[in-house]
Structures are given as structure tokens and as C-alpha cells.
Design a protein that fits this description.
With 479 residues, this protein is α/β, with parallel strands linked by helices. It has helices at residues 15-18, 64-78, 89-92, 103-118, 134-140, 147-162, 207-231, 253-276, 282-290, 300-306, 355-369, 395-413, 462-472, and strands at residues 8-12, 45-47, 82-86, 122-128, 169-173, 197-199, 236-242, 246-248, 311-315, 320-322, 330-331, 338-339, 373-377, 418-424, 444-446, 458-460. The strands form five sheets. Strands 1-3-4-5-7-9-13-14 form an eight-stranded parallel beta barrel, surrounded by five helices. A two-stranded antiparallel ribbon has the order 2-6. It has a two-stranded parallel ribbon with strand order 8-10. α12 links the parallel β13 and β14 (418-424). It binds 6-O-phosphono-beta-D-glucopyranose.
């Protein structure tokens, strides 16, 4: 096994998917607090006004806000070296444009990080995981208004200053490249839908507004990186993308060209801005085709160049194929699906399982960027069954994780500098895509159903002890 001895094994979460306590201790509502529950066949609906007739899963989530000590103790028992959490921006600045932060929110994360450090767990903090304060959405139309950059930087520097001795690893924007797709406009950019209630696919797309807002997010991220390094030069600050690995369905050159186009727009664009500090050459042509002209303020070129990230992190769940011909059988995936790959099996939610694709992706990314990498999301969303004896035999999850860890091992062996691995949803939490509890990822089962009922009791699954042994053996014992 080739995992370095300081390899960061752990798990990943996001505030809106596990904390709950959506309006406690001075927290303001965020984008996610306006998203109803859905399912594989029913899109989640966003309501501009929260309506008591509907169920909003983030409002209670798995109540981590009150149970974090118990949960972190379990992560400690598994031997986690790192825990990815996000700070709920609206717990610190309830409206987003407030002059002073909410002390109760700051104190909460102080305790949470202390609790991690007690077990030798490094926190890995995402500053923005689809959690913009809703007031910024409503009043400023999110990042489409350049002033929101200042609000974000104020928030980022507030928490970086406060936790500078407790947190070393930071990520700026979760899955920033979601904004290269029309339906990412609300979650990443905070662009307000015209309708008072809509699913994300029903939102009208205005590419000029969307890409200008994304430009503001790049500038906000770069400024957070620059300021973060001033606050503590030891900070390691990364970007975070949803990795969209596509294969050509056939050797038809048109399929290959389509893959190249999609990879450039959905992955390389954001990756290049974050790591190389400039817009890649191919975007000029794309913007021309879709009628977009990005307004750069005079300082932006320098900010993007100076605010490049220390490492590249990404989520990886599955791959898809691309075909220039229509009428193919389709498959699902994180953020977007594609054409079905005849060589791959899929999860219960139709995401194709492709460990070798992770090896390909790690090699591809290191070849392109030559900076350290981190896999900050990977896992299997599945239906788990509690047996009569109370056990949860999630061998399918162990198989999924094992096969992906083996490919990380192969990548490291081949020379890729991989810093760590945070398995997504280390404790069952609300699914971002569907709002369900039924789509479970965790090593720890949480007794809660899609409709919000359940005791919230935690139970170890079979994979709990398996992962404990993986960490203890530094990846050499995977059986
Ligand atoms: C990523 C997000 O899109 O994938 C997470 O960063 C999300 O927030 C994860 O939960 C898995 O997706 P889903 O839809 O299964 O929850």
C-alpha cells in the first residue's frame, strides 16, 4: 500500500444537511432552508417564502447542532484524521450584510472544532456549501451583485481569524462548477428564481447574469485565499469541484469532441481559474457562442492571479458517457447524468459505479494542475435495512469504498500527490439532490425517515468497523 503515513482519512458533511436548528441561536435562513423534500422521481421545490404546509428537511436535519459531541466521538472512534464540515454562513451573519457577527454562531463552531481536535481530527472547513444567507438572495440577487463579494470576504475573514489556530484546511466554494449549468444558479450563485415556487430545472436561465455572478464568485474565492494566507501563512486553502468525468460512447470522433467540450466547460474552466489564476483560452469562444461578455474590474486579473489555491479538491461518485447521437439510454449522476455506459453497474439512484474512473480522474487532474489533490466526497447512496437484531449489513457500501480506495492507492503509487480522502456523508444525512433520508451514505445510521419521523438514534453499520480498520492500517487492510 502506498498511502503516505500522514494521509488524511476521514468523512465529509455540510451544515445544511446535518445541523438542523435552522433558526436557533440567531441563525438566519439560508437558501437550503427554502428547499422542500423530494425523491428520485419528484424534484425538490424551492419556495421564496417558507410555507408551514411543507416539510423542509434542513430545518431539523439530523440535529447535529445539538448532538455533535456524540457524533464526533464516533468519528474519533473510527480514527478519523480529518472531518469536512461547512460553516453555515447565516449562523455567523444571519442576513449576510450585517456589520457584526453573531457570537453564538461563532461560539458553536469553536466548540465543534475543539471537540474534533480532542480526538486528533483536523477540521476541513467549506466556507460556502449552498448556504448563502437568504437575505442576500432576496435583496441583492446573490453574487450577480458585485457587493456580495465584500460580504463574503467579510464572513470568510471573520471565521478565518476566529479559528486560525484550530483550522488549517479550508475550501472556498463547494462544487463551484455547478454554476456552469443553468440549474446551479440558485445553489452556488444565489440567483433568485422568478417564480415564487419552482424546481431548479424550472428556473429561467440568463447566461449573462449567471456567468457574471460566477466571475464574482471567482473573485470572492481569490480574495478569501489571499486574506487567508495573510491571517495564517500555514493555511492550506483549496477549491472544490464536482468532477464530471465523461467517456466518448463510441470511437466516433464527434463523441470525443463532445467530451472535450464538456470537460472544458464543466470542469477545466473553474479548475483553471482557481489553480492557474486566469480564464482558459477556450472560454472566449464559448462565451461568444452564448452571447456572454464578462465585465472585469481593473483589479480582477491581479486578484485571480494572486488568489490561486494550494490544492485541488473534488467530489467523485460516478462517470457517464457522451454521445453526439440522440436516442441513447440515459443514466443519472451527481448534478448531471449522461449516456449509460454498458460496462458499469449503477446505484439504486442510477449513478454508475466506476472506481477505475477515479484513477483516470486523479491522473488527469494531476497532469493538468501539478498541485496536491484531495478527494473530499465519494460514497454510495443506498437504501439500508435494519435487521431484526438491529445490525445494518452494508456490504455493498464496503465494496464501493474498497474499490475506490484501491484506485487511490494505484494513483499514489503512480506518483499522484493525494492529501486525503473524506468519504461523503460519514453519518446519514439529508440528500442534497433529493432531500431524502432514505438515500443513505453513512458509516453511522440515523433513525429518521423521509417525512421527518424517527428517534434520531445513531447506530453503527457494518462499514463502521471496516473503515476503522482501513484507517488503523493506513489503507493496507481493506477486507
Ligand atoms: C454533492 C454535494 O453534490 O454530492 C453534497 O456537495 C451532496 O452536498 C452529495 O449531498 C451527494 O449528492 P446527493 O444528491 O446524493 O445528496
Amino acid at each position: 500500500m502506498s498511502f503516505p503515513k500522514d494521509f488524511l482519512w476521514g468523512g465529509a458533511t455540510a451544515a445544511n444537511q446535518l445541523e438542523g436548528a435552522w433558526n436557533e441561536d440567531g441563525k438566519g435562513d439560508s437558501i437550503c432552508d427554502h428547499m422542500r423534500g423530494g425523491s428520485l422521481t419528484k424534484q425538490r421545490v424551492f419556495d421564496a417564502e417558507i410555507n408551514d404546509d411543507y416539510y423542509y428537511p434542513s430545518h431539523e436535519a439530523i440535529d447535529f447542532y445539538h448532538r455533535y459531541r456524540e457524533d464526533i466521538q464516533l468519528f474519533g472512534e473510527m480514527g478519523f484524521k480529518i472531518l469536512r464540515v461547512s460553516i453555515a454562513w447565516s449562523r455567523i451573519f444571519p442576513n449576510g450584510d450585517d456589520a457584526t457577527p453573531n457570537e453564538k454562531g461563532l461560539a458553536y463552531y469553536d466548540d465543534l472544532f475543539d471537540e474534533c481536535l480532542k480526538y486528533g481530527i483536523e477540521p476541513l472547513v467549506t466556507l460556502s456549501h449552498f448556504e448563502m444567507p437568504f437575505h442576500l438572495v432576496k435583496t441583492y440577487n446573490g453574487f450577480s451583485d458585485r457587493r456580495v463579494i465584500d460580504f463574503f470576504v467579510h464572513y470568510a475573514t471573520t471565521v478565518m481569524n476566529r479559528y486560525k489556530d484550530k483550522v488549517k484546511y479550508w475550501l472556498t466554494f463547494n462544487e463551484i462548477n455547478f454554476a456552469t449549468m443553468p440549474f446551479g444558479a440558485l445553489n452556488v450563485l444565489g440567483i433568485l428564481p422568478e417564480q415564487s415556487s419552482t424546481d431548479l430545472f424550472g428556473m429561467a436561465d440568463r447566461p449573462q447574469e449567471r456567468f457574471q455572478a460566477l466571475h464574482h464568485v471567482f473573485v470572492a474565492s481569490a480574495r478569501a485565499v489571499i486574506e487567508g494566507h495573510k491571517i495564517n501563512p500555514d493555511f492550506q486553502i483549496g477549491c472544490m469541484l464536482a468532477q464530471m468525468t465523461f467517456y466518448p460512447l463510441t470511437p466516433n470522433p464527434d463523441d470525443l469532441l463532445l467530451v472535450q467540450d464538456w470537460t472544458n466547460i464543466f470542469d477545466n474552466f473553474c479548475g483553471d481559474v482557481h489553480v492557474k489564476g486566469e480564464y482558459p483560452w477556450f472560454m472566449a469562444d464559448y462565451f461568444k457562442k452564448i452571447g456572454v461578455e464578462i465585465v472585469f474590474e481593473k483589479e480582477d486579473v491581479t486578484l485571480l492571479k494572486q488568489g490561486t489555491v494550494d490544492f485541488y479538491s473534488f467530489s467523485y461518485y460516478s462517470t457517464n458517457c457522451a454521445s453526439a447521437e440522440g436516442g441513447k439510454e440515459m443514466s443519472m449522476g451527481n448534478l448531471m447524468g449522461g449516456v449509460k455506459n454498458p460496462y458499469l453497474e449503477a446505484s439504486d439512484w442510477g449513478w454508475q459505479i466506476d472506481p477505475k474512473g477515479l484513477l483516470y480522474t486523479l491522473n488527469y487532474l494531476y497532469d493538468r494542475y501539478q498541485v496536491p489533490l484531495m478527494v473530499v466526497e465519494n460514497g454510495l447512496g443506498a437504501v439500508d435495512v435494519v435487521e431484526e437484531d438491529g445490525s445494518i449489513q452494508d456490504d455493498y457500501r464496503i465494496d464501493y469504498l474498497r474499490s475506490h480506495i484501491q484506485m487511490m492507492d494505484a494513483a499514489i503509487e503512480g506518483g499522484v500527490p493525494l492529501l486525503g480522502y473524506t468519504m461523503w456523508g460519514c453519518i446519514d444525512l439529508i440528500s442534497a439532490g433529493t432531500g431524502e433520508m432514505k438515500k443513505r451514505y453513512g458509516f453511522i445510521y440515523v433513525d429518521k425517515d423521509n417525512d421527518g419521523t424517527g428517534t434520531l438514534e445513531r447506530k453503527k453499520k457494518k462499514s463502521f468497523d471496516w473503515y476503522k480498520q482501513v484507517i488503523a492500517s493506513n489503507g493496507s487492510c481493506l477486507e
